[in-house]
Design brief:
mainly alpha, 3 domains, 4-stranded mixed beta sheet, 25 helices, about 60% helix, disordered C terminus
Length: about 650
């Protein structure tokens, strides 16, 4: 399955969840109805027929009310997404400026995998009090995803083993599992409320009451409700296990595909088997999030085979290596003393190259559309090796800047600095007047450093700045957005690179600084999006060709690849859309279901690759469009144009 098929599968799993949840509710209502009839007969000593529609109605409304209250309460608690889960489990954010070697190594590995797969770099949490070997990914979408690891994971695993675990968690991010997992947490909490109600009822009777016989009956009634709540707990675990186990096998396989190093992930699983605590957690909240973790957080005492959220360790190892391995109990190699070497700045990691990886210099220069589509939502060993090499090649000054909020904001501003002296002077004056603590001289210094880099590194640098930018305050974020707008408007025009930078920064940061908005209704047909597709394809075709006929050919070829295009009248000339039309169109395209997004991204790739030539500007715009549609794409699309845009023969796109 490809990225889009995984997303569809996740949507189908949601429907399966609803069906199983419905069965659980029916079973609990039936049980509670029977208890209610018996309770009325026993407590009030009256004769009553077994079929009582009024009682059934009261029981149904009461049950649905309690389950609904439990689910809604939990969903409200989880509105913040991944951070809410991590903090409820006792996690704390890993500071980008940490001097702890193992924490730096963790940040390195996460950054490498994010760049290789094209996802935003997740916020990393450390469960410092958990000595078991475990990890999880949580969030509603890649832009608000977090990755959490236990202290045991850091202390017990080697770098290759840690990389295998992180690759496994990135598979959950890419395959659409996170949103489903959060829904499971919210919905299943409602089933637990019946058990809680029974416990409250049991404890409510006073041993000192004069009506001891009545109280004894109430206690029995409460125990019966707790037993029905136990049915809910059982169904909850069954639902989690039915959804989780196959997704764990898929994530294992994807992690091996990403790293081409099955021994890394298998080694981590062996260490779990040989560790005294295994993958178990101490947190009382771990049970509700058990289906999110890399390894099982508890050991069921009965019905283990079909109640477990995770497959047996031996089976997972066998599927990866062809044989089951003995547990490994020895801890990982201690941290080296040379902390100031490569990697100490929290970005450039040292790692054994993935087995069979291809050097960056031998990568195919211009991919076919099929190759481009295959790279959406995945990571390859080649991309991982390229990300590692690229991170290690960054100048130390930029490495240092990416560890502090001020440095990251300064770096982003330097990406917007104009080459023309008059415009640059106005921009630096605007920086000086900003409430942010950004030094104009530092902006100029970074701009000089950037001028010596390949322009294809600019967007990955932007991605690297996002984790530390998430640590600024909401007011600083608002001021930062205003600063970006001011720098862009300094010359009275909007360039493509400025537009792309704004698009990506807003996409990456807004989920962290504004309330999570209600999801729009999914769009399942291309008909209402037809004109928006034309906007996207027009701009990609215009930027790729100076000749109008060539641009129209690229546009028409791309539009013809969309489903149902043969039944529609195609434009006879290239439309006159500009960048001003792109933002609103992308917003309307976002609610499209995965299969429609697949068709749109495929058409966009056709518009760029039809002439077998890709400039940096085309690559940037294509990647920004794909990112906005929530389709992760690696930032390493090779181009045929020189790194300097001044020599490009490609056409400019109208801005307004």
């Amino acid at each position: 399955m490809d990225f889009f098929e995984h997303q569809d599968q996740a949507r189908r799993n949601t429907k399966q969840l609803i069906g199983l949840f419905g069965l659980a509710i029916i079973a609990m209502i039936a049980s509670l109805y029977a208890i209610a009839i018996v309770a009325v007969i026993w407590l009030f000593e009256v004769s009553l027929q077994l079929w009582q529609p009024e009682v059934l109605l009261v029981v149904s409304v009461g049950t649905l009310g309690m389950i609904g209250a439990g689910s809604v309460t939990k969903m409200v608690e989880l509105r913040r997404g991944g951070p809410a889960v991590a903090e409820s489990l006792g996690g704390a954010k890993v500071d980008p400026q940490t001097t702890d070697f193992r924490e730096q190594q963790l940040l390195n590995v996460v950054a490498e995998m994010a760049l290789a797969s094209g996802t935003p770099i997740p916020t990393v949490y450390l469960l410092n009090h958990e000595i078991g070997i475990n990890a999880f990914a949580a969030g509603y979408a890649p832009d608000d995803a977090v990755i959490g690891v236990t202290r045991g994971c850091l202390e017990q695993l080697s770098r290759d083993e840690l990389q295998g675990v992180i690759a496994h968690e990135f598979s959950h991010i890419l395959n659409g599992d996170m949103r489903l997992n959060l829904k499971l947490m919210g919905v299943l909490q409602g089933l637990l409320y019946i058990y809680i109600a029974g416990r409250i009822l049991t404890r409510s009777s006073s041993s000192g009451s004069r009506h001891r016989d009545r109280d004894g009956r109430i206690v029995c009634f409460g125990l019966a409700i707790m037993a029905v709540g136990g049915i809910g707990l059982m169904f909850g675990r069954l639902i989690k296990s039915s959804v989780s186990r196959q997704r764990e096998f898929l994530a294992d396989a994807s992690a091996v595909q990403f790293t081409r190093n099955p021994l890394g992930l298998a080694g981590a699983l062996r260490r779990i088997g040989g560790h005294g605590t295994g993958s178990r957690l101490r947190s009382p909240k771990a049970e509700s999030a058990s289906h999110m973790f890399f390894g099982a957080v508890f050991q069921p005492t009965f019905l283990q085979g079909w109640m477990a959220t995770h497959p047996p360790l031996s089976e997972r190892i066998r599927r990866m290596t062809g044989r089951s391995g003995a547990p490994v109990s020895s801890p990982a190699i201690a941290a080296p003393s040379g902390l100031a070497n490569a990697g100490a700045m929290g970005l450039a990691g040292q790692s054994t190259p993935p087995t069979g990886s291809t050097p960056a210099s031998s990568m195919v220069a211009i991919p076919q559309v099929e190759q481009f589509m295959a790279s959406v939502g995945t990571a390859s060993p080649q991309h991982l090796a390229k990300a590692q090499a690229w991170l290690q090649s960054l100048p130390p000054e930029l490495n240092e800047a990416l560890r502090s909020p001020t440095g990251a904001m300064t770096l982003v501003c330097s990406l917007l600095l104009d080459a023309r002296p008059a415009v640059r002077s106005r921009q630096l004056t605007l920086v000086q007047a900003s409430p942010l603590t950004i030094e104009p001289a530092q902006v100029e210094q970074f701009a000089k450093l950037l001028s010596g880099l390949d322009a294809r590194k600019y967007l990955p640098l932007l991605d690297l700045s996002i984790p530390v930018l998430r640590t600024i305050t909401p007011q600083q974020c608002a001021d930062f957005f205003k600063q970006i707008q001011a720098l862009v408007k300094a010359d009275g025009r909007l360039s493509l690179s400025e537009y792309v930078l704004q698009l990506i920064v807003q996409k990456r940061l807004r989920p962290h600084f504004q309330k999570r908005l209600e999801q729009p209704k999914a769009v399942t047909s291309l008909a209402p999006l037809w004109e928006d597709c034309q906007v996207v394809l027009t701009l990609l075709a215009k930027i790729g060709h100076t000749n109008t006929d060539d641009a129209f050919y690229a546009f028409k070829s791309a539009l013809s690849s969309l489903p149902g295009a043969s039944k529609r009248p195609l434009p006879q000339a290239l439309p006159t859309f500009t960048l001003a039309h792109l933002g609103p169109s992308l917003k309307r395209l976002q609610p499209a279901v995965p299969k429609l997004k697949q068709a749109i991204v495929d058409a966009a790739a056709h518009a760029v690759l039809v002439d077998q030539s890709v400039t940096i500007r085309e690559a940037e715009l294509l990647r920004a469009i794909v990112i906005t549609l929530d389709c992760p794409i690696p930032p390493f699309l090779d181009t045929t144009a020189p790194s300097s845009q001044t020599t490009s023969t490609k056409a400019a796109v109208p801005n307004r």
